[in-house]
Amino acid sequence: MTTPSTQEISSLLRAWRSGDQSAFEKLVPLVHDELHRLAHLYMTRERAGHTLQTTALVNEAYLRLIDTNQVEWRDRAHFFAISANLMRRILIDFARSCGYQKRGGNVKKVSFDEDLLASPAPDPDLVKLDDALNDLARFDSRKAKVVELKFFGGMDLDETAEVLKVSRETVKRDWRLAKVWLLRELKNRGADGA
């Protein structure tokens, strides 16, 4: 299969935004491999034994994208930036949900064999990273967006610069400063292995 052009994807995004559901159906096969690659990137950063699988993450992102009819899609890079953000949200919601369930979660206690439990705890580092990234966004939203696009979205410097409409050097500087800021925050929060 040939790589779809940026213009082709951008055109389908605009048509979809205008209400053409067939455009979304044409878009899905064109972006599927890249979304799967993004999801795989996310999942490789998760703890071992994570119950959410790459394909499930992609499918959940598709479900959320279908409901995203207020987005003014600009282009391919914008689409993948939004998709990366959705995947991050899904994983954070999943991690928080696991923490909620671990603490009882408004359900009756039932005895069970703990060896059968696939994922007994949320990923505390992911939740702490999300909290720190949200704090960074309140302090400097562009630096937080750089982290989101590069770390979570798997974008390179040029793609990130294109999405944010800044220079490559600005992205490099923001990335360096954001990493230092986040590492300090995670260390202060006691994140193991940050």
Structural class: mainly alpha
Quaternary status of these chains? single chain
Q: Overall 3D geometry?
A: globular
Radius of gyration: 18 Å
Reported for the largest beta sheet, the result is: none
Instruction: Report the β-strand fraction as a percent range.
Output: under 5%
> Kindly state the mean pLDDT as a whole number?
76
Question: Please, how many helices?
Answer: 8
Given as residue ranges, the uncertain stretches (5+ residues, pLDDT < 50) are: 103-123
Which structural traits does this protein have?
mainly alpha; 8 helices; 194 residues; globular; single chain
In short:
The protein is mostly helical and 194 residues long.
Give structural notes.
The protein is mostly helical and 194 residues long. Helix content is 69%, strand content 0%. It has a domain of 74 residues. The protein contains 8 helices and no strands. Helix 1 crosses helix 2. The longest helix has 27 residues. About 11% of the residues have low confidence.
Fold topology:
Elements: H1 6-17, H2 21-44, H3 54-66, H4 76-102, H5 124-139, H6 141-152, H7 157-164, H8 168-189
